[in-house]
Amino acid sequence: MLEYVLRYCSTFLYLSLQFVPIEHINLSLLHIHNLSSSSRNLTPSFIVQPGIDLVAGGKSKRTKRTAPRSDDIYLKLLVKLYRFLVRRTGSSFNSVILKRLFMSKINKPPISLSRLIRYMSGKDDKIAVIVGTVTDDVRVHEIPCLKVTALRFTKTARARIEKAGGECLTFDQLALRAPLGQNTVLLRGPKNSREAVRHFGKAPGVPQSHTKPYVRSTGRKFEKARGRRNSRGFRN
C-alpha cells in the first residue's frame, strides 16, 4: 500500500510542476498526506476474518416450546385464555398450566382413577388439576366424590366420577372458579411408565443390567443362555 502511495505522489508532482499553478499544489499535497496516514488503518477486503471456535454441537439455542405444536383449535383457545391469565394475574399456577399445555403427548401422561384417589385422599374440598387424560381403573370398586379438571376424560372414567357425585371440569370452567389456582392440587401421571422406557439404560445382557431386550420371540430358544444362567457363562 505504501509503494502505491509513493508512486502516486511522484507522478502527481511531476504533472503538477508542468500544468498546475503553485497554489493548487499545496492543497493536493495535503490531500496526499491524509491519504498516506489513513492507509495504515486500511485492511484489504480479501483477508478472511477468524471464525468463532464453537464447541461441538454449535450454539446453544432455546429449546423450550412457546406454543403448542398441535392444530387442535380447542387447545389453542385454552392457550389464549391462559396467556391472558398469566399476563394479568401473575399467578405461578397459571404459568405452570400454560407451560404444560405446550407440552408434547409424551410429557402429558395419563393418570388413572386409582392414582387420582390416592393423591386426593384427605383433600375433599380441593380440585384436582391434570393437564392430560384421566383414565378408568377397573381394580377400583369404590370412588369418593372428586372434583377433577383435565384436558380429557375417558368415557368410563367420566361416568364413574359423576355417578359418585363428583364433577368433571374443563379448564375454562376452572378459570372461572379458580383464576389464581386457589384450592387446587396440580397432578401429573407417571411419565416413565411407557413400555419404551423399559428398553432404556445399560445394554441388556451385561452384568447388573435390568434393561428389557428387543427379543425376536419369547420362546424357549431365544435369549435364555449366556447371561441368563450360571451354567452358561454368568447370570446377570
Structure description:
The chain is α/β, with parallel strands linked by helices. The chain has 3 domains: 37 residues; 87 residues, Ribosomal Protein L15, Chain: K, domain 2, CATH 3.100.10; 43 residues, no CATH class. It is built from 7 helices and 5 strands. Strands 1, 2, 3, 4 and 5 form a 5-stranded parallel β-sheet that branches.
CATH class category of the largest domain? Alpha Beta
Number of strands: 5
Tally of contiguous helical segments: 7
SS content category? alpha/beta
The overall average pLDDT, rounded, is 85
Are there runs of 5+ residues with pLDDT below 50, and where?
A: none
Q: Using only CA atoms, what is the Rg? A: 37 Å
In total, how many domains does the architecture comprise? 3
Assign a percent range to the helix content.
25-40%
Could you tell me the CATH topology label of the largest domain. Ribosomal Protein L15, Chain: K, domain 2
CATH architecture of the largest domain: Ribosomal Protein L15, Chain: K, domain 2
Strand content: 5-15%
Largest sheet, strands/sense/barrel: 5 strands, parallel
Order of helices and strands: HHHHEHEEHEHE
Query: What is the global morphology?
Result: flat
End-to-end CA span: 76 Å
GO molecular function: mRNA binding; structural constituent of ribosome
Pfam families: Ribosomal_L18
Region (Disordered): 200-236
Keywords: Ribonucleoprotein, Ribosomal protein
